[in-house]
Amino acid sequence: MSSPPNQPPVKSDGASLARVPPEKAILPAMPLRDLVVFPHAVVSILVGRNSSMGLVKKAAESGQRIMLLTQRDPSKESPSLRDLYQIGTCATVVRTVSLPDGMLQAVVEGICRGEVVGSQVSGGRLNVEVDLWYDRVETDKQTEAMRRLVVKAFEQYVAVNPSIADKALLAIRSVRSPEDLTDLVCHHLTVDAHVKQQLLEERDLRSRMKQLLAVLGPETEILELQRELDGRVRKRVEKSQKDFYLKEQLKVIEDELGGHGGDMMDLDKLEEKVRKAKMSKEAEEAALRELDQLRKTPPFSPQAAVCHNYIDWMVSLPWHKKTKDSLDLKRAQRILDEDHYGLAEPKQRILEYLAVRKLTKGSKSPILCFVGPPGVGKTSLARSVARAMKRKFVRKSLGGVRDEAEIRGHRRTYIGALPGRIIQSIKKAGTKNPVFLLDEIDKLSHDYRGDPCSALLEVLDPEENYSFSDHYLEVEFDLRDVFFVTTANMETAIPHVLRDRMEVIRLPGYSPLEKRHIATGFLVPKALKAHGLKPRNVQIADGAIDKMIRDYTREAGVRNLNRQIETLCRRVAQEVVGKGKKTFRITARNVHKHIGVPDFAFTPIDKSPIVGAVVGLAYTEYGGRAISVEVTTMKGKGRLTITGQLGDVMKESATAALSYVRAHADELGVDPTLYQKTEIHVHVPDGATPKDGPSAGVAMTVAMISALTGVQVNREIAVTGEITLLGRVLPVGGIKEKLLAAHREGIYTIIIPRENEKDLAKLPAEVKRKLSVLLSDTIDDVLPRLLLQEAKPKPRPKSRSRKARKPKTPQPLSAPPADFPVDIRP
Question: Does the pTM of the predicted model rise above 0.70?
Answer without folding.
Answer: no
